[in-house]
Amino acid sequence: MKKIIIFLALIYWANNAKAEVIIDKTRQRSIPIAITLPMQNEHCTSEHKCSVALVSAGYGVSHLKYRFITDKLNELGYLTIAIAHELPNDPPLSTTGNLFQTRSKNWRRGATTLDFIKTNLAKRFTHYDFENLMLVGHSNGGDISAWLANNDKTYIKKLITLDHRRAPLPRTNNIQVLSIRASDFLADQGVLPSKTEQQAFNSCIIKIPDAKHNDIADYGPAWLKEKIRDILTQYLNNKPCSLLNAQHLS
Q1: Of all residues in the chain, what percent carry a pLDDT higher than 70?
Q2: Fold annotation for 17-89+96-247
């Protein structure tokens, strides 16, 4: 049965995913994206808008390599827009010095890209709710998403990061925050909210035993992808964080 579901998802993605390049004329920047409609998109109307997720790739990973996430979000009713933040002429991501400082230019650029895509596509996809947006990002894509979420953008309502490690998660009750953690690296100090902050701001941190940072993509092991998909499904269906943590500790 699982193989049949995966096969049908592949057919759906092949028929509905639209790869394109959006031009930000202000910055003279060509941004590759992939847009996929929700599976039940016929229910999306201007009166009953469907949800939207912007999915930001990790550094060095193609934005097309997160289908295990976008497929699940499409199934859950989301329009997904997968975004390539790094272009061939961009300077390499810093690996030395104070990485929060040396990478902040990259995150600001990525945050500007997310804001631009939101504004641009909201005009085209009028049956979708760009004013109550969810950001999803892996690694550096999660840093970019967290950076934007810390900048008082009222249209951001949910933030999900996949083992990002540098940019602090927002401490606010205005954004639902989930961070799924791998086990091979630690986040920098202050990136993740403390237990007290998690309770105060209703944020959720879930660590997956034996998960590796670089495996969080389509080429990662099947068990890890399935666990992440399950966490996303249950979190977006409002399962309490305490129950999610208890369920995924092994």
Answers
A1: 93
A2: Rossmann fold (3.40.50)
